[in-house]
Structure formats: structure tokens, C-alpha cells
Amino acid sequence: MNSVLLAIVGGLPLGATYALIALGMVLIYRTTGAFNLAHGQFMLLAAFLLADWELHRTGPFLLGLAVSIGAAGVVAALLYLVILSRTVGQPHWVAFVATLVLGVGLDAFLSLIFKSPTYTIAIPGMPRGAFGLLGVRVGWASAIVGLVGLVLSALFIVVLRYTRLGVQVRAAGQDPVLASQGGIQVRRVYVGAWIAGGALAAVAGVLYGSSAVVDSSMSGMALVAVPAMVLGGLDSFEGAIAGGLAIGVVQGFITVYLGGQYVNVVTYTILLVLLLALPQGIFGTKEVLKV
Description:
Blueprint lengths: L1 H31 L6 H17 L5 H22 L9 H22 L16 E4 L2 E4 H23 L1 H11 L1 H6 L4 H26 L9 H4 L1 H7 L4 H21 L5 H15 L14
Antiparallel strand pairs: 1-2
Helix pairs in contact: 1-5, 1-8, 1-11, 2-3, 2-4, 2-8, 3-8, 5-6, 5-8, 6-8, 10-11, 10-12, 11-12
């Protein structure tokens, strides 16, 4: 029983981080149709910036947090405006390859700018140590990171579902021509989606970096979040959260019962099975083909 609880408790905070990453990727995919492979670099950029901000004591933590998240959002918007907006009307693989190349380029750029291989993020007021939960020791930092990730994900869903802004985002993604005829500034919505997607990735990077070491491998978390997207549904916001939590818990069980070295192998095996058995995901929109 303790092993099961340990796996769940260990996997949920990681799953909350995956949920934030997947939400940003789903938002970009649903609005602009681009599957963003440079998403992990937005995480890495924000985490590096904030960690370097703290290291050199540049200013208050909250100001550094705002600058880091804002920088990720601005870079995401620039990538869309300068490059990806020019792929509209071309085959989907063009945008796919463009984001892949951009991701590799950003990785190289960040490695040149930030010389230290590893950083740490210390959030002021973050409690350290652990507490007991049904016989299992749970780290305070891990628990708070998971809770904050879940709350932010839930707030994001509320905004998308029950506000005028959310209606505009869904309309622009579903039928941009009809949305523009209805008075929606589709281009602004697209840019806003990339900014929000970059900001969500930045928050995920900061949260993860506060409970782990910040290094270049962090960008790979976005690729691990892909199974969460596929499981929940590529165009489902609720599915991104459910898929992220599910993948996190699955990885928790893998770590406890098989060992950490098997996490990536089993995770991507699950992704392959899901693509074959349930390509639209649990909450994704099913395509209906008329013959």
C-alpha cells in the first residue's frame, strides 16, 4: 500500500507540470494548427533567466519571475510572427520541421548565453523538508509545485470555457474565416495563443526548476508531455490536464516498481500504443469520414 501511495504522490506533482506544458501545446495546436516542438525551449529560457536573475541578485524575485515569463511569451510570439506565420497554407510538415529547427537553434543559443551547466531556483517562502501522509514522506516543495500547477491549469480552463476571450480563441481555431467575419481579430488571437503558450511553458519550467536542478535537459520535458497530449486528445484542454496527470502517475509507478532508468522507454511505448489504438485520445475530437 505504501508503494502505491508513494508512486501516486511522487507522480502527481510531475503530472501537474506535464499538464501545464501540454495545455500550452494544445492551445497553440488548436488555434494555429502548429505542433510546437520548440515548447521545451520556452521552459528552459524562463528557468535559466530566473535562476541567473537570482544568482546575480538583479532585483526582487517577483520582478525576475515576471521578466522570465514575459520573455518566454515574447520569444514565442516572435517565432510565430517572423517564421511560422509564413507557413500558413503550406503542408503541415513545414511548420512541424520549422519548430524542430527553431528548438535546436534556441538550445544552442541558450547554451552560449548561459555558461553554467546547472542552476537552481529558490522561490522565497517555499518551505523545505517533508511531512507525513499515510505513512509516506512527502516533500513540501513537491506538494506545493503540484498544487500550484493544478490550480493554474484549472484557472486556465475556466478562462477558456467561460469568458469572451475563450470563445474567441475557440472560434478562431475552429473556423478563422467565419471568426474574422464575426469581428474577431484572428491574427491577434493567434499571437496571443503563442504568448500564452510560451507563458504556460515558462511557469512549468519555473515550478519544475524550483524542486529540481535547472539544466539543458529540461527542454526534453516537452517531448515527454507529448504522450499526455495524445492520451487526452490533441485538441482538448481538459484532456491535456487529465493526460498530464495520468502520465505523471504512470511514471511514478514505473519509478517505484521498475526503476527510473525505464521511465522514458515505457512512456514512449505507451505513446506508440495510444497512437495505434486511440489516435484521437480520450477527449479529442473524432474525425468523421463520409463515403
